[in-house]
Amino acid sequence: MARIFLDTNILLRYLTRDDEQKAQAVLSLLLRTERGEEKMITSSMVIFETIFTLQSNYQVPRIKIMELLMPIISLRSLKLEHKGVYDRAFELYCSKNISFADAYNIAFMEDQGVTDIYSYDTDFDGAEGINRLEP
């Protein structure tokens, strides 16, 4: 069975329920995916865009975004690179005043055993175990 790419707008229709008919269709798709009847793939960019849109356009609180997205990210038949990094990224995103991109990068660094980062972004200064360097 071939994988089908899952785009941001599909997730947003389900999560925002701004079109109930589409939300129900997406729910059906997600349930088929969980049962292994559908195989999907998505990218970190889709997850990031979904988070950004929920936070910026819909003013969804960070903790609610995590509660909405983690069950989808965890779907057995959804392929997503570095799936295991998202738990920690959401933990940082919800507990610190940093962007999800920065939280993900910190979690990714931890996962990869990297402690040094070249960056002018001082948000990394508050990350335990991360040493920010400037070129």
Task: Describe the structure in brief.
The chain has about 140 residues and is mainly alpha-helical. About 55% of the residues lie in helices and about 10% in strands.
What does this structure look like?
This protein is mainly α and 135 residues long. The chain has a domain at 4-81. Helix content is 54%, strand content 9%. The protein contains six helices and five strands. The protein has helices at 8-16, 20-34, 44-56, 62-73, 85-95, 100-112, and strands at residues 4-5, 40-41, 78-79, 116-118, 131-133. It has a three-stranded parallel β-sheet, with no helix packed on it. A two-stranded parallel sheet has the order 4-5. Helix 1 (8-16) packs parallel to helix 3 (44-56). The radius of gyration is 16 Å and the shape is globular. The termini are far apart. The mean pLDDT is 96.
- Span of the ends, CA to CA: 47 Å
Q: Report the β-strand fraction as a percent range.
A: 5-15%
Q: Helical element count?
A: 6
What multimeric state do the chains show?
A: single chain
Mean pLDDT comes to 96
General shape: globular
Radius of gyration: 16 Å
Secondary structure: elements and pairs:
Layout: E1 4-5, H1 8-16, H2 20-34, E2 40-41, H3 44-56, H4 62-73, E3 78-79, H5 85-95, H6 100-112, E4 116-118, E5 131-133
Parallel strand pairs: 1-2, 2-3, 4-5
Helix pairs in contact: 1-2, 1-3, 4-5, 5-6
